[in-house]
Structure formats: structure tokens, C-alpha cells
Amino acid sequence: MSMNNVGRPTAPQSTTASGGFSSLTGGRGLLQDEVLIFERGGWNKTGVDLPEATIQADDLGDLIRTAPIGLPGLSEPETMRHYVRLSQKNHAIDLALYPLGSCTMKHNPRLNEKLARLSGFADIHPLQPQSTVPGALELMDRLAHWLKTLTGMPAVALTPKAGAHGELCGILAIRAAHEARGDDARKVVLVPTSAHGTNPATAAFVGYSVREIAQTDDGRVDLADLEAKLGPDVAAIMVTNPNTCGLFERDIVEIARLTHAAGAYFYCDGANFNAIVGRVRPGDLGVDAMHINLHKTFSTPHGGGGPGAGPVVLSEALAPFAPTPWLVHGPDGLRLEEEAVGEAAQAFGRMSAFHGQMGMYVRAYAYMRSHGADGLKQVAEDAVLNANYIKARLSDVMSPAFPDGPCMHEALFDDEWLEGTGVTTLDFAKAMIDEGFHPMTMYFPLVVHGAMLIEPTETESKHELDRFITALRALAEAAKAGDADRFKGAPHLAPMRRLDETLAARKPRLRWRPEAPASLAAQ
Amino acid sequence: MRYLPLTPEDRREMLGAIGVDDIDALFVDVPRSAVLDGPVDLPGFAGELEVERELGALAGRNVAAGSVPFFCGAGAYRHHVPASVDHIIQRSEFLTSYTPYQPEIAQGTLQVLFEFQTQVAALTGMEVANASLYDGSTAAAEAVMMASRVTRRGKAVMSGGLHPHYVQSVENLAHASGVATVRLDPAIDAEDAVIAAIDGDTACVVVQTPNVFGTATDVSKIAAAAQAAGALMIVVTTEAVSFGMLKSPGEMGADIAVAEGQSIGNALNFGGPYVGLFACREKLVRQAPGRLCGETVDADGQRGFVLTLSTREQHIRRDKATSNICTNSGLCALAFSIHMSLLGEVGLRRLAALNHQQAMKTKIALASVAGVEVLTPRFFNEFAVRLPRPAAEVVEALAARGVIAGVPYSRLNPGAGLEDVLLVCATETVTDGDIETFKTELAEVLA
After folding, report:
1. A274 and A216 share a domain?
2. What is the ipTM of this complex?
3. Contact B399/A131, CB-based, under 8 Å?
4. Which of A456, A478, B215, B402 is most deeply packed, by most CB within 10 A?
């Protein structure tokens, strides 16, 4: 086994697939091993040419940092190699279908990247005079107009920086609305058992206690249970629609009516808005607040885990409580109102330092403009069509969690069909990697045993869907044929074998340290 | 529709395989009354050329910072970012991948995060760092919430030098969850007032250095006082390049250090996306918010990286999570890390020295203008001046003359009675000619 210069193992071992063949230096063809930047030296190197300052910082006295910081540098060629080698260990939507249910991994148009980098958007400061950024304010206003029109809602708070931040915005607006009425008895937020983890986390983060609502056998909110749990202590209900089982909440209008009758507000988790955009407006369903994940529905890149953007549309009742800042149409054109004064004094506060994710606004607006009203409707229809196609083509070899009726934009399977095979949902998902696909979302929603949630999105061709279906059918047949080893050891063909997450959590090593022990494997 | 691969024939064939006649059959669960009859009232689809024209025109109406003498800071900073940074972050494998929940096929992102965490820990002088938060202001709010959990106390003391928008972001979250806040009066250089405000209920003190007025402060004494009272010391930094010149939060006794990382690798973007840096003492890490990347081994014993300690997080712990945050600012953290790798310690120190130099030159130039008083005693790359007229008015007048002069403090904190204070920042992107123009134009405006 090869060691790097701190004696840690670096070389990928030969795998079954390579027939036991080993290279002489521990390499694996063009898939390059790459040490940490801290293990290459370069402590006195820099890849940026800068002149030396001629004025000394004598005025700063003992505030000057004298001890070594501990940051290696790389020249530009070394930098390119380092990150390009690392990049090749990642799966990406540009490589193959990425069927993560609830995450919406769709194609990211490159036009949007180009436009977000125009100097008139990328090189403007959030606090330069508003008179010097009318185009930026106009773009925000157009984005707001599209979001309001698509959702049928009268107001939007653009600033939240991600879906969970949007949830926080919505719940804080709801809280402010109750407080403005002098109603401080509402301490509970109702959340279905199938909800995203962010829903209960958000409610609890701002001091609400969370009460769960049961689910019916057909994967929807149990109306009787909802009615029983609604009361004068309930501030809001948080419901995802289409829900995390990939199903439309048929009783959504009734859910809203019951919620309002109890004096509570209806927060809709809009993570799955992509399934209905252009066809159904949440405002027509009785929603009071809903965040829109621009990185899901409107395809701003996920970037390996962010940045996202989570604007929140608001009903008439909640609009006065939107956070600062917001846009106003004044006599001299658009203006950004940055402080809650005068008639705006009901705003619950400020979500973050500046105006939100401008870079994401540009991309999302370009995406919406490119599709138009007709194209966005087609987006929803193709997303739903693709998911139902996968469900139909796999239902005879896997077990759909809700076989009756269509799904929306994602197809949910349970692990009943794996019973007796010795293969778990996790094993099956890891084996998908060997076939060239990213695993589906696993073990979520929690209400379905061994859940496998497949979301293809509308940007997959029939050819790619058929490739995916062929792979999953082959795997399903292998599992049922007793080829458990294929699954237990999977992945075999990835840059790494299965990683030990328990070890990582038991002995957290969260940074490189020069005194690192020779090998973790020895522990 | 260039982004939709299905043809009408594909759709017909797929509907057949599903066993339905038309697409409406797949939307049967939607209440009839809620289905729109036709498209929403918005324009139809548009080609690349058309979209580019529309957005290009909008972008063209804004004054790009690089096109004029530009002196704005106050939480967002214009620095030169090497071309290779943007090239790398646009690689498909980084740009179009998800959160690395499947580590076998996400080692690229994970190793970057591990290196990022190590870089952030080094810069802040702290033991550990997380994989990033949304931005500096939300990181500050998260830090206060964390301090409240750790100390089981319900009060945060915020210094008068803390960026007013950070104050508001903290207050927003803290008040919603029942944590009280004490906000000290705006103070250019009176951090000792913080010590007087600490009591037995204090969960944390929040001090920014360099602060919103640019003042660089040794916060060691405040840290000692806070810790003696059983509170945590949170140090906030909005200009990450200052870590290349000034003593780190860790060296001054911080328990938690948060910073805005935009300065390194990321454009101004009119306020976002940015990248929040979050670092703390290792013993506190299980109370930390957000994603953490850790080292482990795979089934063959090879070193690899995974997201870890996720029992703190919302997708596992739901209403018992340390924060509701789900995302990090992954791509911005990547840009930060690449730029930091290019700079290295040598480049960062040089960059920091250039920033300080250009700010000193600007200070000297502005101080020579009649009626201008420099208020900040010692600073890194930004400082406050008192003008003989309201700063907002002067900024508008200078903007009309093609100089973006800085940020009026009153824009951040309108009620504070500091209408005549202007916050001025000069980075390495400011030339000597820019400074000369600023001085000349300011003199004319004030004359």
C-alpha cells in the first residue's frame, strides 16, 4: 500500500473489476490520487503575483499577526491539477441522471452562469448608492413579479438564503402576525410525520413546540388527526405539497380551510413546487407562506451543497410582516426599503446582512424567462411524466410505496421487494453507483420502510431514463437471484469503497494537523 | 424548448407505457378548481439571444465597481480574484453536484471541504471550523444561539462596533427563540464598554474586529472578562483578508470565531451569495451548527472523507437539531479555498499589506481635504471619517461625478445620529490615481 508523505495510505487497492491488476506506483490509470494541499509543502509558495507593500503597518503595533498562520500555497498549474483531479472523484448532473428525490437535480443552463457573471450584476456592491444600481433593482422586481404570478400570491420576501432560511422567514412572519393581534397563546406548530427535517427544526429553532400529524394509508395528511390537533394553541401548520411521498395532497384546500378556521396560518414547504409550476398556483389552495427553492424549481446550480436561495411568497395577511429590506415603487422608480420605519414598522426584522442571493436571482430569472409561461408548464408536466414512467417501468420488479394512482414528480418505493434477499436499501443504492448512477434518496420520507425516492426531473431524455430503468431492473433481478455479494461490497467501481461513517463520528478528525498519526487504519 | 429533451413522440410513448391517455390523467389528485385553464399571465419562452439581450440591458444600467474609483466596504469587499478560481468552480463536477451525502462518489467536494475547514481554522486561529454557513451575519446569529445552548444562559451582549446589519440579524433570531440581547451604543473605539455590560446571565459577548468603523482591536481583555463570568467570547470579522495581517481571534482568546468569507475568492454579487466562516474550540463542536466534514477510511482502509457528526443536524435530529440549516455555501467555500490555496500564507500576507497600504494612502489623502476628520485610530483597510455635511448627500454628489465614495454609516443605522460619518474602504484594487480622484472630487463637493 502506498503512503503519502505523512505516512497515510493513499493508493486505491485493486478491485475485482480490474481483475486483481495493480499498477507499479499505486496509480489507477487516469484516476489520479491527490494528497491534501497541506501534505505537499509549499509553505513559502504563492500562485498570485503581488507587489510588496512599501508602507509598513507600524501603526498597528502588537495587533500585527507574527506567528505562522499555516497556509500552503500552490502555483497556478499545481492549483489546476489539484482541483481538476479532485473534481474527477465527483458524480455530477452533467455526467448522468442524479435521481435524488426531494433534491431536484436538473440540468443547469450555462447561459445563466454567463449572465450572473456580467459585471453589472457580479461586480456591484450591496451598499453602493441605490441610484447606481437601477438595473439590479429592476431585475429583483421582475423576479418578484414572476414568483408572485406563478404562485398566485400578492407578496414575496426575496432575502432568505436557502430553503430552510425561507422556512425561518415564513414562520417568523407568522409569529409576528399572531403577536400583532395580541395572540401570544399559540405555541405549537403542526408538522406531518413525512415532513422534511428542516420543518420541525425550524419551528423548534424559534421556540415552537412541534406536534406531528398522522398520515393516511395512501400517503396524505390525516384530516381527522389534523382536526383533532388544531386548536387555539396552534400557530401554524407546515405541509409540503406535493408531499415528500411524491403525492399531491388531495385535501389541500380543506387543510387550509381547517387551519384558518382554527386561527392558524398555513405554511407550505415549496421544495416540490417544480411538480406543479405553471399548472397550479399555491395561492389558489389557501397557502399563507411558501418558500421557493430557486436551486430546485428554477435550476440554480447546487454547487456541491449550496449556495441556494429561498424567497418566500406571502398572503395578504402575512405581507405586512415581511422582513427588511424590500422593494418599493416610488416616484423616482424602484427603491430598496432597508429599515422598518413608519408604515413598515411591522416587519419582523432582518434575515441577513444584505439583500439576498443576487447571483441566484439572475440565474433563476434567466431560467424562467427562457422557459416562459408555456415552458414552465411543460417543465411540470415532463417532470411528472418522467417520474410516472419510471414508476410504471419498475413496478413489476420493485414495490411502489403507493401503487394506486399516479405520483407527481418523484416515484417512491419501499423495501418490501428486497425481503429475504439479504440486500438493504443502502446496499441497493450503493450498487447503483457501480452501474454509473447516483443513488436515489434513501430512508426518506421516514414514514416508508427502507424508502427509495426517485426524482428524475424534466431534463432527462427518454434515452437516459431507459438506461436508468435497464440498470435498476438488472440490479433488482440480481438481488432477487441471490447475488448479495454484489450489493454488500458495493460500490466496487467508485473512486472509493464504502466509507466508515461510524469511525468518522466516533473519533472526529475535522482538519488536517501536522502531527497526524501514521494511519487511521491502524486504530 | 432547449432544456427539455422529450419529443412529442417520446411523451406519447411514455404515456402509453404508463397506461394513461393524456398528461392530465397524471394530475388527477389536484382539485379541479385549482388547475389553471391556460398558461399563467407571463411571456412565452425566449431564446438565448433574447434573454441575453434583456439581462445584458439590465446589467448595463448598473455602475460596476471596477469601472469607477470605488471605496465601499462595510461587510462586502472588492478584491481581485484570479481567473483560475472561476474556471475551476464552473467545472461540471463541482458546479452540478449535490451535497456529498454519497461519499464514494463525492470525494472531490469532501476533500475540498476538509481543506477548507483546515484553512478556516488556521486563518481564525481556532481549533476546528465547519463547512460554512450562508454568510457572516447569519453565522454570527448561529454563534449566539450556540453560545446560549452551551452556557444555558439567555443573554447576548453586542458591542457598539458590530455591523448594525449583523446586530439586526442576531436580534431577529435571538428574540424569536427567547434570547435577550444588549446592544451597546455605536462606538468607534470603546470596546471596554463591553466588559462593563457582562454579568452572570450573559451567554456571550459579540465583538467585531476590525469593527464596522474599521477599528482593529485586541479583544484579549474582553475575552478574559467574558470567560471569567462564564460567558463565551464570539469574535466577528467581516473582512477575511485582515487575517493575513492582524492577530487572529484564536490568539486573542475567542471561543467562537465567525467571519464573512466573501473577500477571498468571491465577487461582490450585490450582497450574495457569500460564504459564512464558522470556527470554534474543539470541545464545543458538538453544539456547532451546519455541516462538518471529517476524515475516515473506506472498506479497503484508504483514507477518505465524509460528512460527520450529523446527529446535530435537522435531517437526523429534526426538532432537536442544533440549527435548522440544511445547506452550506459549498461553491462559494470552494472558491474561497481555491483562492486561499493560490495565495498561500505568503500571498495572503502580501495582499493584506497592500490593502493596508492603499487604505493608509487614502486616509492621508482624505485627511488633507478641508473639513474632513479621520475618526478611526488604527485600521486594516477601512476607516471612518466625519464630514462637514451629511454623508449620504456627499456620497450621492460624488456618485454623480463618477466616484463611489463609501458607505454612509447612517444607511446602516439611521437612528444613531451619525449622519456625518462616512465609512471608507480601500483594497488592493484601488489605484493611487483613484485615491487622487477621490480627494480632488471630494474637495470640490465640500467646497
Report:
1. yes
2. 0.97
3. yes
4. A456
